[in-house]
Amino acid sequence: PDALILSVGTEIYLDGSDSPDSTWAAILSQGWDRNLVLSKTAEFTELKPQPNSEQRPFKVSFFLEEEASVAVLPKLESELLKSNLNVKLIYSSGIDLDIVPRRSDKGQAVQFLRQKWKLVAEQTVVCGDSGNDIALFATGNERGIIVGNARQELLQWHNENPANHRYLAQNACAGGILEGLRYFGLME
């Protein structure tokens, strides 16, 4: 692929590079204070840090039980905003909480690449399976493929936001992507 969007959209790798794109990193660094995020989140005992392999320069990740999330997420967001932290909370799969710069998510990363390569949304296909993929499907008229094994939060969003340029596959994982590409006439 020409580009990989990883870590909930906080990293973009171009042309097989093993280093994240510096232009995207510069955009995300504006207003981001990882140490202050860590300091504020330490006050919430319900947040359990995910393994170091899941922590990235522009992503702080926790496990948060779904039952606790209803009370914790609004309080946490309020505390982070009071500290003038320019962040976004992305909660998905009923357990995963990612705190990222406000300018970052998978959808904004796709928009960045479209602008860089001068592509319109209709020339783009995005695929996903969980709540942290909603931003991919909400940025424009790009063709979207939701795989058959998608999580409930993405399916609910899809049902509440119907669109003709989005396809809900029956098959799971890569099989669902291939099914969607055939549906859109992009492969036989």
Main sheet: strand order: 3-4-6-5
Share in helix: 25-40%
Secondary structure: number of strands: 9
Shape: globular
Mean pLDDT: 94
Low-confidence stretches: none
**CATH topology descriptor of the largest domain:** Hypothetical Protein Ta0175, Chain: A, domain 2
Give the number of helices. Answer: 7
What is the radius of gyration?
17 Å
Query: Structural class, from helix and strand content?
Result: alpha/beta
| Broad CATH class of the largest domain | Alpha Beta
Q: Ends: how far apart?
A: 20 Å
Query: Biggest β-sheet: count, sense, barrel?
Result: 4 strands, antiparallel
User: Beta fraction of the residues?
Assistant: 15-25%
Query: How many distinct folded domains?
Result: 2
Describe this structure in words.
The chain has 2 domains: about 70 residues, Hypothetical Protein Ta0175, Chain: A, domain 2; about 60 residues, 3-Layer(aba) Sandwich (Rossmann fold), CATH 3.40.50.1000. The chain is about 35% helix and about 20% strand. It has 7 helices and 9 strands. Strand 1 and strand 2 form a beta hairpin. The chain is globular and about 55 Å long. It starts with a strand and ends in a 5-residue tail after the last helix.
SSE layout and pairing:
Layout: E1 3-6, E2 11-14, H1 22-29, H2 34-41, E3 48-49, E4 60-63, H3 66-82, E5 87-92, E6 96-101, H4 106-117, E7 125-128, H5 134-137, E8 143-146, H6 152-160, E9 166-168, H7 173-183
Parallel strand pairs: 7-8, 8-9
Antiparallel strand pairs: 1-2, 3-4, 4-6, 5-6
